[in-house]
Every structure is written in structure tokens, then in C-alpha cells.
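JOB MANIFEST
job_type = single_chain_structure
chain_count = 1
residues = 613
[input]
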Amino acid sequence: MDAEAAALELPVPNSLYDYGAIGNLHSVALVSRHGSIDWLCWPRFASPSLLARILDPRIGGHVAVRPPEPSVSHQRYVPSTNLLETVFELSDGRSLTVTDFMAVEAGVSEPEHPVLLRGLEAGRGEVTVQIEIYPRFNYGAETPEWSERTAHWIGRSPSGAVWVTAPAPLTVAPRGLGGRWTLAPGVRQYLQLGWGHDPPALGDPTELQRRTADFWRAWVGAGRSRRSRPADPEPPLMERSELVLKLLSHATSGAFVAAPTTSLPEWPGGSRNWDYRYVWIRDAAFSAQTLLSRGHLEEAHAYLRWVTARLRQSGSRPLRVLYAAHGNPDLSERPLPHLRGFLDSRPVRVGNGAASQFQLDIFGELLDAAALLARVDPPSRAEVWPELEPVAEVIERCWANPDRSLWEIRGPPDHYVHSKVMAWVGLDRAATLCRWSHDRSGEVRYRRAAEEVRHEVLTRGVDPDHGGFEQAFGNRRIDAANLRIPMVGFLPYDDPRIRATVLWVERDLSHGPFVYRYRGGDHLEGPEGAFLPCGFWLVHCLARIGEPDRARERLAGLIEAAGPLGLLPEEFDPEGRVPLGNFPQAFSHVAYLRALEALAGASRPANRRPEMV
């Protein structure tokens, strides 16, 4: 086999810390520090994968660029952007820098031709680079057929087509396209991959890289300029978390996906493998609230416009738990048995069965976000409440029903305390929105309903032995979700039932700084990792109950889970020090940012002012 067709020796993916994320506000790619793009769904977040090596090294598909000689690699983000640099250092001092980015459209229209660019630059001498372009359409099920045009290659399959341009000749290799050439130092060249049959008129790729970097920096700067008390300097993970949340937003709809991946396991080799490439009403509300607190008003407006559009489409039916960010694809949960799975974790799933669940808390989360926007932006009050009043009516009708909780329990529904508290939140915020709309009768109506829910929770939700709130009425178990009870203003932080809940969680659910969601059966097989948002919630609560030193100590331990690039997974194995779950996870970054805010406000007296997440 000639040198151009020789296969690269790419390590088998085994750690999420080996990956950085790039995107264009319509999809996200995961780029390995070993030079391989191992995950990409095009042209949208929930489209079938084009590159899925992270789920199957043999048939998943990848696009790799690296030196063929031994090297040490590391990654870093271009400051204040979502452009990612992978640097390969050779033993004699030479280096290869690969700058990956997806071009971001200036407007919000759906891009017809998404493009991913890999900028290549040698340092301190000539460097040989070798590439592999092995896309596999439809979750690894389809191998494209390649044909060469005058200035580019096209790979076609029944599910679509991609085009490739390179600065040197490519040849057909056993699994796709391959190439090898020598880079002169100080000259940047680009490998380009795009969706469709023909490259659009992109212009100078160096200029496109500059414009894309300027887009991200301008967005970060705009939020900072609007914040009332910007930290200076801010912790690096703070800005990275902000950029992750924006990366997971959908430019056209204004929605936020929970994560860009599917089936990255909650335990190595386990079966708790779910598809998170969708918009959860709850998680997206968290993201919108948090970005609003970071000075990004338009993101909150866009999310609520998206929600109200879903409400109009649903008619008399309540909102679903989750949606696709674009269109209405099939959300039914199904396995992909031909894929090996990350860390040999099966089944690999697409779709999510939680879409058909009833989760009471989502309605409260939505109205909480709407009330915050209306408070921060009073002119929005006239449009927010009329559209969202049907949500309050759903809570009023259904709050006494059992549900599956925010943890999406796959067993029978129950009367979860956190769900009831969020019903109270929804009714309380509805009353406030009525007051701002000068609707006195509505305010009285929803305030009365909120007090009814409150009485039920305080009467039935407190464990008599521990003095704190239990997971569900009468089940006598602790649930870290109840850390959110004071965050949403249901009770003040200095209430003894809150302190008892915080200490109960810390004692029974903690492993070092990490916190598990709950203990006990949940009708699923196998273990799971500690849930990172719960750890940040505990930091948040400790700071607010007068334990800021312990809160800071816990936060320092939790931040270790961010890895070298500052990207937070969903879960973490405290003993094996292994990041777990879909990645990067918006929920984790939201909880981290809110914990920082709680620590910053720890010197303020405890009160019942509702907080965000």
C-alpha cells in the first residue's frame, strides 16, 4: 500500500477529555487531540451522524489530520471563541497546529451548506501531514462513493453528500480519501469539508476564520458589557461555560439542546445511554435564564418565542418534555445494534422515550424563566404573559397528579417533592405576571392555587426523622433535586428544613465534592456516575446557608471534572476519575455558573428572593 493510502495509527477513543467541541449554532463536532474529528451530525444537531468514530472506531467514520511521525499533542481554544487548536509537538522542536472551526453565519437563517475548516500550519520547519477522510452516513450504516471534480471531491450516499477540498492531491483509499504532503513553515493551508454536492463561494478561508473568531468574541463582549457587576478577571471556566451554552443554541429557533451527543454512557460498559441532542423545556429554560444573567437578553427572548410557537402547535395538549431544535423528526427511542458504543457501552440509542413522559416540573421552569425575563426587561411583559397563561392553567389542573420527575424515572410515576415545588413556582410566577399585567383576579387565582400546593408539600414532603425534604411523598429517601427548593424561593435558606435537606444530601449522597442524584432503584440496570449539576447545587446551597468556605472547597474539587479544555460532562466517576455521560453538557455548565453567583452573593443575608437554577 502506498504512503498516501497507509492508515494512521489513531488511538481508540476512551476519554471525553480527549475532545474539544466546535460548532455553527446548528450542529456540533467533537475534535480529538489526536487530530481526528470523531463526531458530527449534519446538517443539524439531531441529524444522523456523518462522523461517529466515538461510538465505533471501525465503522463510525472520521476525518483525521496528524503528522505520521511520533508527536505529543494538546488542545486549546482560541481565547474567547469556539475555535479549537490542536498542537502536535515533534521531538526536534517542529510543530503542527490544526485550527478547527465551523463557519458561523452572520444571520439566523438555516445554513444550506454548513462548512467545517481545518487550518494547517507548520512551525520551526517543514512538517509532513497525513489525512484520512472516512465519513460514514446514517450512523455508520452507509459508505459513500467518491468522485473527483475539477477542484474538489464528492462523496455520495443514499442519505446525502459531502464535498472535500484540500491543498494537495487526494487519492481513493480503502475506506475513503487519503493524502500526504509537506507543509512549509509559516504558510497556513486549509482542508475543507462541507455538506452538499458543491462548495459555496466561501472566499478567502483565512478571512472566514477571522470573521468566525470575531463573531464569538463580539458575542462574549456584548454580554459582558451588559452585566451590572462583571467579575474582573473572571475565572476561565466562566467564559468557557458561557461559550458552551451559546454553542448548544440553535440560531434559527432560539432553542438550546441539552448536549450534542447520543449514548455516551453514564457508566462504562453500562446501558444508561441516552440521546441528548434535543431541546428539553427544562434544560433550555435553565440555559436561557443563565445567559440572561450573563447579559444576553436576546437568547432569553428567542427561547420564549420558540416555546410559544410550540404552545400554538400543541393546541389543547400540554407541552411535551422535549422537542427537536428544528422540524419534527421522529423522537421514538430505538437502538442501533450495529454500533459498538463508546467504552463498549450498549445499546447505542437515538431518539428519547422521555418525550412521551409527563414531567410536572417543566411548566414551572418555563414560567420561572418567563418571569425573570419580564423582570429584567419590563417592555416584554405585555407579550410574555398572554402567550404563557395556558402553561399556568396546565399546572392548576395537573399539579396533584404523579409524574416521572426531572430525572425521567422509567418506573411508575410518583408524587415527587421537587416536581410539586416547581408546580408552586409556576403558579407563584403566574401570579406575579398577572400583577405586572394588572390582572387582579388572575393574581388572586394563581396565588390561591400556589398556597394550596405549598401546604401539600409542607404537610406531606418532610421526612420526620431527618427533618428535611424527602424524594417523594412518603418514600423516606433523599433526592439531590431538593437542593433547588430554596433556590426557587419556596423557603428561605435559613429555614431549618432547608438546612436539614442540605446536610442530608451532603451526608448520604456525596463522594468527596461529587454528589449522586439519589440512592435506590430506578427501574434501570447498572450504576451511574455522580451527577455534576447536583455537586454544584450543593456548593450553591452551602454558600447561601452560611458555609462559604466549605462551598469553595467543594467547588475546587468539582472543577477538576472540567478537564483541560474547561468542558463539563454530565456525570463523573469519583473513584476512577472518569468523565461520563453526554458531552459537553449544558446542565452542568449552567449549575457551575449559578454556583459561582451564589458564592459571590454569600455575604448577602439569606432571604426568600427566588434565584435562577
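[summary]
The CA atoms of residues 130 and 540 lie 48 Å apart.
The mean pLDDT is 94.
exit_status = 0
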